[in-house]
Amino acid sequence: MEGSEGSTRGAQDGRRNQKLRTRRALVDAAAELLREGRTVTIAEVAEAARVSTATAYRYFSSPQELLRETHTLLRSPDVTADLPADPAERVDAVISRVADMQLTNEPAWRAMLGASLERYFKQNDGQEAGPYEGQEAAGQEEGFPVRNRTRLDLSRTALDPLAATLPPAALRRLTMALTLVYGVEALVSTRDVCDLEPAEAKEVMRWAAQALLDTALREAAG
Q: How remote is the C-alpha of 48 from its chain's centroid?
């Protein structure tokens, strides 16, 4: 009897581990497609992961769902780890880490930006979102924003030590302004519009962040 129960548990564990491996294979395949700058569809990801499309749909009902999990994977490492206490150094650390992460993996971040823009048009026009199959009408995921708030949260974390220095309105304005000068949109602006190499693009982002910080502190002191 005990042997039978042990065999059952072993079989259940084996199935569970296989499901985890399949899920991770799909996420890894999506991440690789993003790094190559390719469109992420369930069919393409299934082929890359060497599973059937029907199997892939059992794990992820839409490319957006898959992209959200892949985005979490691509965000590593944590850019807020061990931040310095000095506000200027703290801001510089966040900007530099995000720039390094995104500039070394441009195709993936550009693909994510493209996916978010398609989601915007899908939600606002009620139309199907181009290359992504398996999507339903707009409003299917009404509570999920077109863009997540990760960068805004990073800006708030970077500026947290200034809560006792700047008036709330000034801190809020600085937070919003800081969010404009880094991230994937800043990457596109510096690389495509300004035609900068990655190293100079990063330096421009860092300089702009410090200029905003210095201006906010001077205004508060004045």
A: 22
As a whole number of angstroms, the distance between CA 70 and CA 143 comes to 20
Helix (H, G, I), strand (E, B) or coil at 52: coil
pLDDT along the chain (222 residues), means of 10: 58 71 88 80 92 92 79 66 93 95 85 76 58 36 53 91 94 97 96 97 98 96 86
Strand, helix or coil at 4?
Answer: helix
The domain total for the chain is: 2
Same domain, 64 and 83: no
Alpha carbons 83 and 160: distance in angstroms, whole number: 11
Residue spans of beta strands (DSSP E) within 154-205: none
Q: What is this structure's pTM? A: 0.66
Residue 30, φ and ψ in degrees, nearest 5: -65, -40
* Domain stops at, among 49, 74, 99: 74
Domain that holds residue 157: 78-222
Helices and strands in the chain: count of H runs, count of E runs: 10, 0
Give 25-30's long-range contacts (Cβ < 8 A, gap of 24+): 25/49, 25/50, 25/51, 26/51, 26/56, 26/59, 26/60, 26/66, 27/66, 27/69, 27/70, 27/73, 28/73, 30/66, 30/67, 30/70
What's the pLDDT at 73? 61
Give yes or no for a contact between 198 and 103, defined as CB atoms under 8 angstroms apart: yes
